[in-house]
Design goal:
Radius of gyration: 16 Å
Structural class: alpha+beta
Number of helices: 3
Distance between the termini: 53 Å
Shape: globular
Order of helices and strands: EEEEEEHHEHEE
Number of domains: 1
Helix content: 10-25%
Amino acid sequence: MGYRDLIPDDGSILIDFVKEGDCLTALSKIGENPDLSEIYFLEVVLQPAIAVGGHEIIFVILVFDQDTETMDRVLESERGRAKIPRECRPKVHNVLATLTRSVLEEIRPDKVQMHTYETHIPARAFRRYETVLNAASSLGYECGRFAEYHGQQMWAMILPAGESGEPQ
């Protein structure tokens, strides 16, 4: 049987939110593989970026193994590609955009950063980062790549003055 897509075609997804202090997590089930006893989730986390100020946005695929009842975070692009079939990825990108907008709308931080986990990722792997940037841009954020550090790419998302939900 293999991978089974669990994202509704109409784009309506169920989002679970978890708020712990200044950290907000949005989670949605995206698929399963009954042959491997795995359930797949997409997680988007907005958390304070203590070292540089503002917030950081992180997104990962979570794999729940029903046999061992363990959760694994898939950070590497090749591992993610192995779990999610090509034809299902556009819908996963739509979920990523929805979850990103959800956490940004809830907190409305004035500065958000994002970076790759891997170094020197292939060009096709940038699509998911572009999805996050486009979602932020749709909410009024000015977005752009600002640095490369030892092969990791970094982006900034800035709300124009007076538009954030954070205390001034």
